[in-house]
């Protein structure tokens, strides 16, 4: 009998704003594969902690929370992503800057990362999985057939985020966003637990100045070379 490890995985890692969420979704859609948005899991832990009054440095309580995370990913009639935490639709509330900062804090805790490991591996289902995150290729799916490390310049990432927020009617200065992004990058790449770095066998893809279609196609081309 074949096990989950026979199911192919594409790992797409990289810093926030590199476009990996969009690219991972497009690649998964084109291939008809499942999608794991691992960042959403860290965001859910931060949100649940906030709701339950758990401090963001209480590693033990946060790990318990992570191990019991009652999450459901789905989509509405238009195909837009929807995420539920128990019975609550948290699609919008996990995307705030505050929740992102909370996610970055809980993601630095080893017990939390350990608690989320099996949950993440459970997303590996036939015919395949596209896994989006920071440590998909280096840790969670070390045996992924294709590992992509998607980057973009900090300036470009700040500009993309600025545009997204503006579309939602949120006005934040570009300079403040650039500072936030650089600060988050530093925290994510300097932390001792699962720091953000490309896997040794990852292919680096810089999306600065490239269209979503071009970047998606590059990943699909690399897939077809396997
Ligand atoms: O990709 P994102 O912005 O939704 O991720 C939120 C936070 O979670 C970010 O600070 C990095 C962290 N994260 C992580 O440490 N490991 C992952 N596999 C995914 C996200």
Report on this model:
This protein has 226 residues and is α/β, with parallel strands linked by helices. It has one domain: Rossmann fold (3-Layer(aba) Sandwich). The chain is built from nine helices and eight strands. It has helices at 20-31, 38-52, 59-67, 97-107, 110-121, 136-140, 154-167, 174-190, 212-224, and strands spanning 9-13, 34-37, 71-75, 81-85, 88-89, 129-133, 146-151, 203-206. A five-stranded parallel β-sheet has the order 2-6-1-7-8. Strands 3-4-5 form a three-stranded antiparallel β-sheet, with helices on one face. A hairpin with a 5-residue loop joins strand 3 (71-75) and strand 4. Helix 1 (20-31) packs across helix 9 (212-224), helix 2 (38-52) packs across helix 4 and helix 3 runs parallel beside helix 5. The mean pLDDT is 92. Bound molecules: 2'-deoxycytidine-5'-monophosphate. The site of 2'-deoxycytidine-5'-monophosphate (DC) has 14 residues, from helix 2, helix 4 and helix 8. 2'-deoxycytidine-5'-monophosphate (DC) is lined by residues 16, 38-39, 42-43, 100, 103-104, 107, 133-135, 184, 188.
Produce the secondary structure layout.
Blueprint (H helix, E strand, L loop, with lengths): L8 E5 L6 H12 L2 E4 H15 L6 H9 L3 E5 L5 E5 L2 E2 L7 H11 L2 H12 L7 E5 L2 H5 L5 E6 L2 H14 L6 H17 L12 E4 L5 H13 L2
Parallel strand pairs: 1-6, 1-7, 2-6, 7-8
Antiparallel strand pairs: 3-4, 4-5
The structure holds 2'-deoxycytidine-5'-monophosphate.
The site of 2'-deoxycytidine-5'-monophosphate has 14 residues, from helix 2, helix 4 and helix 8.
